[in-house]
Amino acid sequence: MKAAIIGATGYGGAELIRLLHQHKYVEEFTLHSSSQSGVAISESYPQLTNITNQSLQSINIEQISKNADVVFMATPSGISTEITPAFIENGVKVIDLSGDLRFKDPNVYEKWYKKTSAANEVLEKAVYGLTELNREKVKNASLIANPGCYPTATILGLYPLLKNIAVEANSVIIDAKSGVSGAGRKASLGTSYCEVNENFKIYKVNEHQHIPEIEVALKTANNQLGPIKFNTHLVPMTRGIMSTIYCQPLASVSEKLLRNLYQQYYENDRFVRVRKEGEYPATKEVYGSNFCDIGITFDERTGWITIVSVIDNLMKGAAGQAVQNLNVMHGIDEGTGLLGAPIFP
Ligand SMILES: NC(=O)C1=CN([C@@H]2O[C@H](COP(=O)(O)OP(=O)(O)OC[C@H]3O[C@@H](n4cnc5c(N)ncnc54)[C@H](OP(=O)(O)O)[C@@H]3O)[C@@H](O)[C@H]2O)C=CC1
Ligand SMILES: CC(=O)N[C@@H](CCC(=O)OP(=O)(O)O)C(=O)O
C-alpha cells in the first residue's frame, strides 16, 4: 500500500517514518510539510540519512489523493478538521493522530481544545482507534481518530476493572506523568532544557484536554462512573508515560482475582502485558516499543486498588498505535512493523 505523512517534520511524523520504513506492506510513503517543501527530511532528521532521501512535498490534497491509499495526519489540533474532509471525499483513508476527531459531540471538543470542531458528518465517520477496545470497528473504518497518549495508557489500565468490578463511582484518581517529547518538537519555553532538567512539574491542572476523552471511553465500561480526578506532570525524560491510577472497589477484592481478570481481558492482545504479582512496570521497559505494560495491586489496609500503566508516548501513544490501526484496517497481521523489543537501557 501507499501512504502519505502530513506533519512529517514533527516527532509523531518522524516516528511514523521509522515504522513505515520497516513495514513490509507499505511499498511507498511520501512526506508533506506546510513550511519546508523542497527540503530533504534528513535536514531535519540526520538520523534518517540513507533511510529515506526524500524531500518534503507541499500539502496538495488532490495530488496526495491520487497517490496514497492512506494518509497519516501528524499535525497540531485544528489542521485535520480543515483537511481530512477532502481526503474522505476523495476516497482516501485517514488516520488522524491529533485530537480533532476523537469526540462525537462537537461541543466537547470546542470546550476542551478551544477550537472549532469538525462537522458532525465527519465526526460520525471517525472510529476511535484504541485498537484493543475497538478492533472490530477499526477493521471496517476508513477514518481513524487515533487516541491521545495519556488516554491510551489510562483507559487500557482501567477498562477491565471498570467492566468487571463495582467501584465507588467518584473514586477514580489518575496521576499521570509524561516525557517531554509528548509536547512535540516545536520549541517552547516550558519544554526548554533549563525549565525541564532536574525539575518535575504539574501542568494543565484540572483542565487537561484528555479528561473528557478518558471519561467518554470509561463510561462505555461503567456508565455510573463519576468525573475522574486527572492531573498531568512533566518529567525530565524524553519518552514515556506513566499513569498511576487509584480506585476504591465497593467490596474487598483479592489481588489474584484482579490479575486473572486483566490477564483474561487482554489474552488476545499482544501489545498489552499484564505484570506478575509484585511487579510494576517502568517507562524504560516499553521504550521504543508498542507495548502497554500494566501492574496492579490491592491494598487490604486502605481498601484501594492501585494500577500502574506505562507506554512510550510516541509509539503506543501515537505512531505505533496508528500503524497498529493501519494493519487492522487492511486485514494484515496486527503486529506488522511493530514487533521490535523495547530499547534498554
Ligand atoms: N508527541 C506525542 O507524544 C503525541 C502527539 N499526539 C498528537 O499528534 C499530533 C502531532 O504531534 P507531534 O508530532 O508531537 O507534534 P510536532 O509539533 O512535533 O509536529 C507537528 C507538525 O505539524 C506540522 N504543522 C504545523 N502547523 C501546520 C499547519 N498549519 N498545517 C499543516 N501542518 C502543520 C509541522 O510540520 P511543518 O511545519 O513541516 O508542516 C510540525 O512538524 C498532535 O496533534 C499531537 O497532539 C498524540 C499523541 C502523542
Ligand atoms: C507533555 C505534553 O505536553 N503532552 C501533551 C500531549 C498532547 C496531546 O497528545 O494532545 P492531543 O490531545 O492534541 O493529541 C499535553 O499534555 O498536552
Automatic annotation (TrEMBL):
Pathway: Amino-acid biosynthesis; L-arginine biosynthesis; N(2)-acetyl-L-ornithine from L-glutamate: step 3/4. One of its GO terms (molecular function) is NAD binding. It is found in: Cytoplasm. Keywords: Amino-acid biosynthesis, Arginine biosynthesis, Cytoplasm, NADP, Oxidoreductase. The active site is at residue 149. Its EC number is 1.2.1.38. Its main location: cytoplasm. GO terms for biological process: L-arginine biosynthetic process. Residues 2-141 form the Semialdehyde dehydrogenase NAD-binding domain. It catalyses: N-acetyl-L-glutamate 5-semialdehyde + phosphate + NADP(+) = N-acetyl-L-glutamyl 5-phosphate + NADPH + H(+). One of its GO terms (cellular component) is cytoplasm. It is an enzyme of class 1 (oxidoreductase). NCBIfam families: argC. Belongs to the NAGSA dehydrogenase family. Type 1 subfamily. Catalyzes the NADPH-dependent reduction of N-acetyl-5-glutamyl phosphate to yield N-acetyl-L-glutamate 5-semialdehyde. HAMAP family: ArgC_type1. PANTHER family: N-ACETYL-GAMMA-GLUTAMYL-PHOSPHATE REDUCTASE, CHLOROPLASTIC-RELATED (PTHR32338:SF10), N-ACETYL-GAMMA-GLUTAMYL-PHOSPHATE REDUCTASE, CHLOROPLASTIC-RELATED-RELATED (PTHR32338). This is N-acetyl-gamma-glutamyl-phosphate reductase. It comes from Anaerobacillus alkaliphilus. The gene is argC.
